[in-house]
Structures are given as C-alpha cells and as structure tokens.
C-alpha cells in the first residue's frame, strides 16, 4: 500500500532530507488518502472457525494499523 512517489527523498528549506510524504502539503495528503482507498483487504474464514472471527478481526486490524 505504499505510494512510492510520495516517499521520494527531498531536501527541505532547512536543508534536512526527508520523504516528500512528511511535508504538510495538502495535495500529497489527499493523494495518499485516495491511494489507500484503492485497496481492499478481505479475510475468508472457514465456517468451522467462525467462533474465532473476533480474534481474526482484531489481529487483522492490528496488522493493518
């Protein structure tokens, strides 16, 4: 789910080199949100494991941040 163009290193006004995504640029923030919205994550769970679906959901939420 990375957006490589937003992770390019740039030299900031203060001379520091940081990823472009670390800036407060509104356009980059919007682009990152749109890019993230493109992705879906599905978990297919066998019916015999349904009793543990909350555990699986929590683990997936933790994994995805």
What's the arrangement of secondary structure elements?
Layout: E1 9-11, E2 17-19, H1 26-37, H2 53-64
Antiparallel strand pairs: 1-2
Task: Walk me through this protein's architecture.
With 65 residues, this protein is of the alpha+beta class. The chain has one domain (4-64). Helices cover 37% and strands 9% of the residues. The chain has 2 helices and 2 strands. The protein has a two-stranded antiparallel sheet. Strand 1 (9-11) and strand 2 (17-19) form a beta hairpin. The chain is elongated and about 55 Å long. The mean pLDDT is 85.
Q: What's the helix count?
A: 2
Main sheet strand line-up: 1-2
Order of helices and strands: EEHH
Assembly level? single chain
**Spans of at least 5 consecutive residues with low confidence:** none
Query: Judging from the principal axes of the Cα atoms, what is the shape?
Result: elongated
Structural class: alpha+beta
Descriptive labels:
single chain, 65 residues, alpha+beta, two-stranded antiparallel sheet, 2 helices, 2 strands, elongated
Briefly summarize what is shown.
The protein has 65 residues and is of the alpha+beta class. It contains two helices and two strands, in the order ββαα.
